[in-house]
Amino acid sequence: MDYLTRLNYLKSLKKTILKYEPEIKQALFEDLGKSSQESYSTEIGIVLLELSLFIKKLKKWMKPKRVKSSLIAFPSRSFIYPEPFGKVLIIGPWNYPFQLILMPLIGAIAAGNQVVVKPSEFAIETEHIIKTIIKEVFTEDVVQVVSGNHLVSQELLEKQFDYIFFTGSEKVGKVVMQAASKHLTPVTLELGGKSPCIIVDTKDIQLAAKRTAFGKLINAGQTCIAPDYVLIQEKDKEQFIKYFIEATESFYGKDPLNTLDYPKIIHQRHHERLKNLMNGQEVIYGGQYSETKIAPTLLIPKKDSPIMEEEIFGPILPILTFKDLSEIPKLVIDKPLALYLFTDNKDVKDYIITKIQSGGMTINDTLMHFSNHHLGFGGVGKSGMGTYHGKHSFDTFTHYKPVLFKSKLIDISFKYLPSSKQKESIIKKILK
């Protein structure tokens, strides 16, 4: 695809999303119980912002870039040409079913690829509106939407693609990577993990609790970068609990199970899983549930509890305490997708940044690194591989092809055989 074709697709996609904004919000409410504000701020608005950036920057990003040539290739000119990989498969999750399909799609189209999209079968209403939008914007040979359950995903993974972009669990990520290896297909895996929220040596526990509650309870905790558990000094624990409860009730009232601002759990199996994770734990706030929702919950986890062995992905927040800063790296599980730190101490900041590896990090807030397209977003280790958002998305779906234009005006003789000590001496000087 040339520049104008890609640009027109992006402009048309933005216009069509704006046209269907009410329907998108309704679909997200039916699938996940998201309020209009939450749907816009965490799904629709982020996608529109990304489209605006791509529309503005695409021409610049598509241009070949001249780079320096090496002395050994003199005389020559060297360039990096961005080209599409070819046919891309995007498999999306159910927790942000609109945003996490559209964001990688924007990058893939901007880079000039053909795309097959597989939305989650658990967010069926959102899948329907995505189908409608894509059908209006793209021809089927450019973007195709494939529906179905995990068996359909398996069938797609058996086919040969030039790039695979997957967002979901670590368990399924391994399946995707194994399937991709059969064709040596490059992958981006956006997974998850147990993202810690560390609170130490901060003057404002109230603000830390409020921002932790916000990050934890958006989408009822069904967010891959939600704070999964809190690490806090014993002396600050009771204050944190008090302010977390205050913040939660200021967001959702005293009866969150019956407010339209508080989302629901995606399906019954996940609902049962979350209830089981609470079993046998010391619940200190919340713990109630309805047929479709689970209330914001604080608890003290028992030793060797399953809740500290797997990503929670719900509105349940375990609280663990520590005495000394040196204990923290041992308490952090694997390499999390996100890490949050609340502190006013520069030495603490430097210690945590350098001692604990994570996909991304926000200091004195939660989730916010996700919103900055200049930073890029992605995991490390078990939390994933590859980066996207903004220019990083364009880069992800682009092969940067090196091209050297060699002049015919001068032909350096010393590079040719037969060999001689004099030629070797010249080569050694050049290659030092």
UniProtKB/TrEMBL annotation:
Alphabetized PROSITE patterns for the sequence: ALDEHYDE_DEHYDR_CYS, ALDEHYDE_DEHYDR_GLU
List the SUPFAM superfamilies hit by this protein, alphabetically.
Answer: ALDH-like
Superkingdom as given in the UniProt entry: Bacteria
Q: Name one GO molecular function term.
A: aldehyde dehydrogenase (NAD+) activity
A cellular component term from Gene Ontology for this protein is: cytoplasm
Q: Does the UniProt entry include the keyword Acyltransferase?
A: no
**Parts forming coiled coils:** none
InterPro entries (UniProt xref): Ald_DH/histidinol_DH (IPR016161), Ald_DH_C (IPR016163), Ald_DH_CS_CYS (IPR016160), Ald_DH_CS_GLU (IPR029510), Ald_DH_N (IPR016162), Aldehyde_DH_dom (IPR015590), Aldehyde_DH_NAD(P) (IPR012394)
State the UniProt keywords alphabetically.
NAD, Oxidoreductase
* Sequence similarity: Belongs to the aldehyde dehydrogenase family.
Q: Which protein is depicted? A: Aldehyde dehydrogenase
